[in-house]
Amino acid sequence: MEDLVSDAFWAGRRVFLTGHTGFKGSWLAIWLARMGAHVTGFALPAEEISLFGMAQVAELVSHVEGDIRDLAAVEAAMAACDPEVVFHLAAQPLVRESYQTPVQTFATNVQGTVHVLDACRRMPALKAIVCVTSDKCYENNEWVWPYRESDPMGGHDPYSASKGAAELVISAYRRSFFHGVEGAPLLASVRAGNVIGGGDWAKDRLIPDIVRALIAGEPPLIRSPGAIRPWQHVLEALGGYLLIAARLLQGREWAATAWNFGPADSDVQRVDWIADRLTARWGTAGWERGNEAGPHEAHILKLDCAKARSVLGWRPALTLGDALAMIVDWHRPVAAGENARKITYSQLDEYRYKFQSALAGAGIE
């Protein structure tokens, strides 16, 4: 299989990345910079405690602070970059936060996506756009069957609804302005499961909440131990995003559609399964049940990734156990004062080898 996620393919490419100060965006910025890409990041200022700050990501990219709700700012930063490829990750990413700030959530996740895509229309060198939404974009029927890319969009809470709406925006821009237009960039959307990994400090998110408690020497409080999610290490999703971007850069029109990237069926697990194994890996006595009161959140959510596996040759390179071990092996030394970027590089380089081996095993050209 052609090596599409490599230094040889990405070195020197101009990349515009929104949301690079966030957890997933920081990992992607580091991966792209590691391959030699010239990355311009556009995002709100990083949180006080973040992977972006700990790994000093600003030293690796052209760092531009701005808000995707400001079309003029988005277009100015993008024009200065003159990108070949755009990765749009900037978002309000939390379900519970969306109940507190629904207007901000819709403005960021829906209108912000409109702004990014509209700015893309005026970038002369642009060839590829990858918009990141969420597995929660689907109308969730709380059933055991995984959702396919062709299933209806929806959303009970403001966050999920905003991601479903963002997918409709992406589809409209693809069909109205990019598809079949000579010289226009190719546009894909990508939907990942619950991404986890070292450096995630978001509030009201399972892994960061557990890690904060473990670092403090306290028993983690688990809010919804029976909830089922498609857990996967952040690098698994990012590898899929990079693979799609590479196919778009090659002009493969079949890639300009929606794609699911989720874990193996055996890694779609309950919250208490995660809590048991993460605390055991840390070496603590376990966790306690917390207060489940709160706004509605999906109980069962699975993704069907047959399309990515059969067409792209993408597949998970890690088990969920591997991912949990990587989280502990990132957070414990960083909490002890070790260099966060060095540890991040080490995990990235090890994963890249496994990812390339998984792609080679697929044998798809």
UniProtKB/TrEMBL annotation:
<dbReference type="InterPro" id="IPR036291">
    <property type="entry name" value="NAD(P)-bd_dom_sf"/>
</dbReference>
<dbReference type="InterPro" id="IPR013445">
    <property type="entry name" value="CDP_4_6_deHydtase"/>
</dbReference>
<dbReference type="GO" id="GO:0047733">
    <property type="term" value="F:CDP-glucose 4,6-dehydratase activity"/>
</dbReference>
<feature type="domain" description="NAD(P)-binding">
    <location>
        <begin position="17"/>
        <end position="324"/>
    </location>
</feature>
<dbReference type="Pfam" id="PF16363">
    <property type="entry name" value="GDP_Man_Dehyd"/>
</dbReference>
<dbReference type="InterPro" id="IPR016040">
    <property type="entry name" value="NAD(P)-bd_dom"/>
</dbReference>
<keyword id="KW-0456">Lyase</keyword>
<protein>
    <submittedName>
        <fullName>CDP-glucose 4,6-dehydratase</fullName>
        <ecNumber>4.2.1.45</ecNumber>
    </submittedName>
</protein>
<dbReference type="InterPro" id="IPR050177">
    <property type="entry name" value="Lipid_A_modif_metabolic_enz"/>
</dbReference>
